[in-house]
Fold this sequence. Notes:
Strand order of the largest sheet: 1-2-3-4-5-7-6
Order of helices and strands: EHEEEHHEHEHE
CATH class: Alpha Beta
Mean pLDDT: 94
Number of helices: 5
Number of domains: 1
Low-confidence stretches: none
Structural class: alpha+beta
CATH architecture: 3-Layer(aba) Sandwich
Amino acid sequence: MDNYHIHPLEPLRFPLVARFYKTHYPPGKPKKDERIWVIDGPSGLCGAVRFQQRLEYQLLTGMLLHPDLRGTGLSHRLLDAVQETLCQRPSFCLAFRPLTTLYAQHGFTPVDHHVLPDDLAARLHRYCQSGKDLVAMEYSPKA
Length: 143
């Protein structure tokens, strides 16, 4: 696992990230105005996470690892690497229920939808109405 490098995305590599999402998670379409962190491995791009910037907060979204690398600990390394980004401003994520333990290990705690900014609460409601089992989580920096 030492052959993996985690770093912010260089803008010129955006098309590679877009293709990676299209291949492995088509609903997760990255946008050029997002802060994106990537994992590069021996065979190229193998993971990413995006931060959508809003006026008063940021949303960690679209964390994705190549399917062959899930369960290897790379997601933990990625979340460790973005801790400084998470500390810069209030941060939330809408986690698929099976991933809440992973996020909790990195400083996220479940929150009631009433705690969310209005636009994020509306998004959560829409997603849940469409059948997605999501949990709203807020980041709290480790003391």
